[in-house]
Every structure is written in C-alpha cells, then in structure tokens.
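Hi P.,

Sorry for the delay on this. The queue was packed all week, but I finally got your sequence through. Input first:
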Amino acid sequence: MDKVTCIAYLLYTTSKNQDIRDKAIQLLNGDMSMHELKRDHSIHPLLVMAESLIRKNKLDKTKVQIFVDEFMVVEV
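Then the structure:
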C-alpha cells in the first residue's frame, strides 16, 4: 500500500467528522492532494498521527484493502 492510501484509510477510520471522511475519500480517489490537505489546519493533527502510525508500521493491510475496495472509484 502506498502512503497516500494508508493516510486516507487512517483519516477515514479515526474520525467521526463527515467532512474529514469525505476528504479522506477524495484523497483516495485523487480528487484532493496531500498538499491541499496539509493546508487545512483542522486536519493537521490527524495527519501527524496518521504519518506516525505509518512510520511505525501499525496498519492492518487487509483493512486498508477493504477500505480501498469499498471507496475507490474506478472509471472504465
């Protein structure tokens, strides 16, 4: 899993705020960039936490894959 996908998963699963969840899905689908996300000060603490968990390799890759399968938009 790439870093952006893992960050999107962590933002989605750790927040109950629907706006943050929507931004996580936008990040996953490429509708929002990490640069744009980092400019949003309300999300910054969650980003720091997510990047820390990724560095510590504290993710269940199976759960990340389930998240991607459910929310990634695939256009044919």
